[in-house]
From TrEMBL:
Residues 424-658 form the ABC transporter domain. GO terms for molecular function: ABC-type oligopeptide transporter activity; ATP binding; ATP hydrolysis activity. This is ABC transporter ATP-binding protein/permease. It comes from Desulfatitalea alkaliphila. PROSITE patterns: ABC_TM1F, ABC_TRANSPORTER_1, ABC_TRANSPORTER_2. The chain crosses the membrane at residues 35-56, 139-160, 214-237, 243-261, 323-348.
């Protein structure tokens, strides 16, 4: 396994992404378009609410707290421009008239209005003051009520939007994982030898998670931050264009800072991810190779490598902090600077009576709000980039399709040859995993129903490769494999594999119960069958020893069992399948002679009456085979039964002698 954990692909980050990617993303969203439209609508409404809140403070101030005189006021402008500010009241209201009459000396009357300087308001008793300002107090109450309604609505919308958005995001992730899993599971073996396990795992986990970020961040970026920015700019211009322009003068500096920040943050962010991925890879390698590391005393070197990686990660982490620590306060400072500009410039306008106090207060709030989306956009830009890179990697995996092509002329469903295995024939089969490096050269043999063909030969001779070809994990480069006289390429591969049981060199057990490991459909296996199979596979003693018998859960693929026990379980699995063709790759791991004898008996039971191609690493396993093929450097060097080959005194005989000598030693 190459433990790169996907960091090689990190190099893709930061490349310009084309629109094609977005086009491919849209179909993923299509099933959830209602949710998405709902979510965007809610974001729009939330933006509107947020834009309305400061405006309400303007209304409260200008209409009710420091009312701006209505245009109908009977005092001409030059008198209004007095140093003092006045409260104008309507004498047509009975309550007001009574107060004005009682404190006549404080009011100036004209037509149906009267005015009183703000400075003199303090001279009125609290009760009269309230009467005088009854309208404003009621108005203020309404404004506050409206404000509360908006706040509650904002809360509800935010909650709903979150739920809807996350629901869509999680569903998209769910669908994507299903597609990826199905896609990966159907690929042929070459695909898996080229793709490191960790890379595929990263696609299914991290990259899919990043895609989720893509949807949620994209929605919040485009529809919240950008709407908000545009909205605030529009409202500021509408409130007072002079104030707006004064604030916008700072914008180039802000944009410059944001662009610089997102660039630097991206570099650090990427380098950091590469390091974290390397740490993952190193960790996985250490755990996998812990026996070798401890036996060869490589702990120190291994630790030193880890320490290097970890120190680098720390250094980059610190750099990341610095970049953020500089940018966030910088934007904050620029925001405060904008406020200062506004207080000075807007304050002067208020003093000149060109702008109402309410407008200034609302503008101050808008300006404070203006800087948050800018900061968020700069931050989210990286997340977006990262998510786009993940999307690209996922699509490139989905585009890699190495599934076996459907046979052009598949066996007719009525064809009797499809159900019963009668013969296997390899006809001058040559094959190379890597072009130019053949591992099988012109290999031919036949096996009739019920016969056993054993493949023996030195390591690397190509024995396992023959089994790979018979399972159609690969196709031969030349020559043909025929089953029942029909080219393997014309078989429906599922049907063929359905007739076959494979026992691999390394017993593969799954993290499930023993019963689930042996029986494909545990609920359909009756007690009599279970007992028969356990007996034939010599697994009874093992099952009795386990605390819950067949229902014992095997942790970590049966890591707590001995290799001999694991082999017996895989033999039981093959027996349970009741296959017509057994492909058996004998385990090479060391087992004591007593266990070996038990395994031999189990294998004998498995093979009896079935067609079998077996790779024998111990010649004793091959002894009783109908035909033994001795492979050497990919060629059939000798063929015959045990007696014939021994009489020949060739390679088989020599291998036999070697094995006997080893046993004697
Ligand atoms: N997936 C692969 N990609 C490239 N080369 C491979 C692959 N699998 C096996 N080989 C090479 O093909 C040759 C034959 O391998 P094969 O596993 O068939 O040998 P074998 O006779 O079964 O060996 P052993 O007795 O050690 O199991 C070897 O040189 C091996 O390195």
């Amino acid at each position: 396994m190459r433990g790169d954990y996907g960091y090689i692909e990190e190099g893709l980050l930061g490349k310009p992404r084309d629109l094609g990617l977005l086009k491919r993303l849209l179909p993923l969203l299509r099933p959830y378009r209602r949710l998405l439209i709902g979510s965007v609508t809610l974001v729009l409404m939330m933006t509107l609410i947020n834009l309305t809140l400061p405006y309400l403070s303007k209304v409260a101030i200008d209409r009710y707290i420091v009312p701006v005189p209505a245009h109908t006021t009977p005092w001409p402008d030059q008198e209004m421009a007095d140093e003092r500010r006045y409260l104008t009241v309507d004498l047509r209201r009975e309550q007001v008239r009574q107060v004005v009459e009682r404190f006549d000396h404080l009011f100036e009357r004209r037509a149906a209005a009267a005015r009183i300087a703000y400075a003199d308001l303090a001279r009125l008793p609290a009760e009269d003051l309230r009467r005088l300002r009854q309208d404003q107090i009621t108005g203020l109450g309404w404004v506050v009520l409206f404000l509360l309604v908006l706040v509650v609505a904002d809360f509800a919308f935010t909650f709903l939007q979150r739920v809807i958005m996350e629901r869509a995001g999680h569903r998209v992730m769910h669908d994507l994982r299903m597609r990826l899993f199905e896609h990966i599971q159907q690929q042929r073996l070459t695909f898996f030898t080229r793709q490191p396990v960790a890379r595929l795992v990263t696609r299914m986990t991290n990259d899919v998670q990043n895609m989720h970020e893509l949807f949620t961040t994209f929605a919040s970026m485009v529809f919240r931050d950008i709407f908000m920015l545009l909205g605030i700019a529009a409202v500021l211009l509408a409130l007072n264009w002079r104030i707006a322009l004064a604030v916008f003068a700072l914008l180039p500096v802000v944009v410059w800072a944001a662009v610089r920040f997102s660039r630097r943050a991206r570099e650090v962010f990427r380098a950091l991810r590469v390091k974290v991925a390397q740490i993952n890879g190193h960790m996985a390698e250490t755990i996998e190779g812990i026996r070798t590391i401890q036996t060869f005393g490589r702990q120190e070197r291994n630790f030193a490598r880890f320490a290097d990686l970890n120190n680098e990660t720390l250094r980059l982490g610190m750099r990341e902090i610095h970049v953020f620590a500089l940018f966030m306060p910088l934007i904050e400072v620029l925001g405060l600077l904008a406020l200062a500009v506004l207080v000075l410039f807007g304050g002067l306008q208020v003093l000149d009576n060109r702008v109402s106090l309410g407008v200034l207060v609302a503008a101050l709030t808008y300006v404070r709000m203006f800087f948050r989306p800018i900061r968020d956009l700069a931050e989210n830009y990286n997340i977006l980039q990262n998510a786009m890179a993940s999307a690209e990697r996922i699509f490139s995996l989905l585009d890699t399709d190495t599934r076996l092509p459907r046979p052009a002329e598949a066996l007719d469903a009525q064809d009797p040859r499809k159900d019963r295995l009668q013969s296997i024939a390899l006809e001058r089969v040559s094959f190379a995993y890597t072009p130019g490096e053949p591992v099988l050269r012109e290999v031919s043999f036949t096996a009739q129903q019920g016969q056993t063909v054993a493949l023996v030969g030195p390591t690397g001779a190509g024995k396992t490769s023959v089994l790979n070809l018979l399972q159609r994990f690969y196709d031969p480069d030349s020559g043909r494999i025929r089953i029942n006289g029909v080219d393997l390429r014309h078989w429906d591969i599922r049907r063929l594999r359905g007739m076959t049981a494979l026992v691999t060199q390394e017993p593969v057990l799954f993290s499930a119960t023993l019963r689930e490991n042996i029986f494909a459909r545990p609920d359909q296996a009756d007690e009599a069958t279970v007992t028969r199979i356990l007996q034939a596979a010599h697994c009874e003693a093992l099952v009795q020893r386990l605390p819950l018998g067949l229902d014992t859960h095997l942790e970590k693929g049966g890591a707590s069992l001995s290799s001999g026990e694991r082999q017996l379980i895989t033999i039981a699995r093959a027996l349970a399948r009741d296959a017509q063709l057994i492909l058996l790759d004998e385990a090479t791991s060391y087992i004591d002679s007593q266990t070996e004898a038990v395994i031999h008996k189990a294998l004998h039971n498995l093979i009896a009456g079935r067609t079998c191609v077996l790779v024998a690493h111990r010649l004793s396993t091959a002894r009783s085979a109908d035909r033994i093929l001795v492979l050497h450097q990919g060629r059939v060097a000798e063929a015959g039964d045990h007696r014939q080959l021994m009489e020949r005194r060739g390679l088989y005989w020599r291998l036999h002698r070697q094995e006997e000598k080893r046993a004697a030693d």
